[in-house]
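Justification of resources, computational component.

The compute hours requested in this renewal are based largely on the per-chain cost of generating structure records like the one below. Each record pairs the submitted sequence with a full structure-token output. That output is archived, and it is also reused by downstream analysis tasks.
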Amino acid sequence: MKFYIASENDILSGKITDVYFERTQQTLRHLGLTNVKVRMEIHSYGLPKGYKWAVFAGLEEVLKLLEGKPVDIYAMPEGTLFKEIEPVMIIEGNYLDFGIYETAFLGILRHYSSIATKAARIKSLAMDKLVLFFGLRSLHPAIAPMADRAAYIGGCDGISGAFDKEIFGIEPSGTMPHALILVVGDNVKAWKAFDEAMPPSVPRILLADTFEDERTEALKAAEALKDKIYGIRLDTPSSRRGDFKKIIQEIRWTLDIHGYKNVKIIVSGGIDEDEIINLRDVVDGFGVGTSIAFPPSVDLSADIVEKYVDGKWVPYTKRGKWPGAKQVYRCGDTPDSDVITLLDEKPPASNCKPLLLKYMENGKIVRDLPSVKEIRNYVLEQLKKITQ
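The structure output for this chain reads:
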């Protein structure tokens, strides 16, 4: 028995690839085409239905993948909101030096951007309400750090991995599972034990839907911890919910009239965009798992768009794609203001800023990379200026 996962060395060596890229290398060498310089774009020609924008994420890992290879990379800063057709990255170099890595770098960018985009949509809809990502149990554990990073980049206020402090410098967020209360066998005893066992820095958010009616458990939880309690979490299964919003309003009223107006209400369990819109006016926060962990795919693809022929770059691509390596200029605050030009064209106006910046030259990273917290702040600033 084993874990069927790729090692870091497997990825960096190009072993984790589709076989047709290996066969392409063999064929090009057979033809003697060992020095064909190209520019390859990564772009999306079809965002998920209803999406006007997506969040570009995964750049740092792609730079790690191609570091030391004789290629140049231009890319949007990680966390940039982009729209269809716009290139998010350009890789320039001899095709044989990087073509084998297409499976890996597309997989990184697609998965990262899909999770980050869904997290950003959820956070944008939740507005000032807390959003915690609880999706690790939906995923293979080998990619848990990547998923937490992508969800945090997208705007989630908290991520739940116990490893997050060590890897990202972010204190993990979490409440308690039903398993704790079921093993203890008594909700009040479990809540009090949790309070006694946890350090003061852990918010006292008590799960209040295990044995009894949610209104009953919520009030019992508040009375059990008094001023120590931060909030209650409702993870009520769909078979028991009825009108979930009315249940929450009933709980809020009950807590308020008993002097617990300060107790927050967090909801989780099957939360997606519709639930966010329906409940955001009556709750203080959301725990979101599967809808972020398994989001609609941001369909990024990679295409050669130029070849270097006789000392100059020549637009060259397959049908259905725009030929020529491109620059994207942002001429306002949102992707709606973007203008696409050829890579070396001047900006269309003085207020237009290029989005594709040079991050790698001949395999060497030439630009400082932001921290995960800085990327998240960049995403949140953009979200303030857009509508879904």
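The first strand starts at residue 37 and ends at 44. The first helix runs from residue 8 to 12.
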